[in-house]
Amino acid sequence: MHTRRHLLALAAAAAIAPRAAAQTPADQLVLLGTGGGPTPKALRAAPAMALMIGGQLHIIDAGNGVARQAVLAGLPLKSLAHVWISHLHSDHVADAFTLPWLAWAGALTTPVTVHGPKGMAAMAKHWLRFAKTDIDTRIADEGRPDLRKLLGVAEVQPGVQLRTGALTVTAARVAHPPLTDSFAYRFDWAGKSVVYSGDTAPSPALIALARGADLLVHEVMYLPALDRLIASESNAATLREHLIASHTTAEQAGEIAAAAGVKRLLLTHFVPGGDASVPDAAWVDAAKRAFSGEVIVGRDLLRVAL
Asked: All domains of the chain, ordered by start, with CATH?
């Protein structure tokens, strides 16, 4: 029979254990949102991916609702250190600054850098004007540190963006017309490598960036379903031409993975992302036409082993 003192000790140990585990979360990748395009979708959240590396949280693209997706995934927002924005389309940048703002309203007290294309610094300036009343109120009323002193912005150019500890982050400019500045990112650390394509048509720069990577996370379109989706649009031909020029089909994603010699291909940013009639096998079969490695069909909150 347990004594009261023993039961209290067990309860104390149980209370301490989760906090101790949360202090050093394991390295992990979580897809937070896998839908492509700005239209909200019932089936998939807006584009975002999380990498937990060395106890620091990196969010790659920040579509609307990313903070809640991170919480649903069990990721500690107080560990947010870097936000990486591939380009300035709304579905990728909507919550670039809202994410650290909401993290700061919780337990975040450490610096966060938002990395993104030219225009990111101007966006931050205007966003801070928008958030001024809330920031000032919470500093005075709740004793929080000044978010403006924690928030940094770094505008991206091709090449190495960050070296910290064992982690190196490298960017490459990819093809996503009409935007000139659209970037893919590569994360190398502790013998691991993950590449995120961002939005892009097939791009030699991406193939070079992804060479030999353990995992390539790539946007994807499925043309048969896309053609059904836009068939009734008056501008169907023009819209299709734009999508083909700016994005990558499932077959092409497989070709890129094969050309880069990556080990695994993870599909995300599905276009169309709201069509439940397209089975996972359709995406896999298309990518497998050129790529013999493992193909993973992404879904919201999918955690991928690294």
From this structure: 25-304 (3.60.15.10)
Cis peptide before 272 (omega within 30 of 0): yes
Burial class, 24, CB count within 10 angstroms (exposed 0-12 / middle 13-18 / buried 19+) = exposed
Q: Which of 23, 27, 25 is nearest to 190 (CA)?
A: 27
* Options 61, 91, 188, 199, the catalytic residue: 91
Confidence band (pLDDT; 50, 70, 90) for 14? Answer: very low
Residue 187 pLDDT > 60, yes or no?
yes
pLDDT of residue 5: 43
3-state helix, strand, coil in the chain (%, to 5): 35, 30, 35
CB 117 within 8 A of CB 85: yes
pLDDT, averaged across the chain: 91
Share of the chain above pLDDT 90, in %: 81
Strand partners, 183: 173
Work out whether the CA dihedral 215, 47, 164, 206 comes out positive or negative.
positive
pLDDT over 60 (residue 120): yes
Instruction: Look up the pTM and report it.
Output: 0.90
Sheet of 28-33, strand order: 151-155, 112-116, 80-84, 56-62, 48-53, 28-33, 303-304
91 belongs to the catalytic site = yes
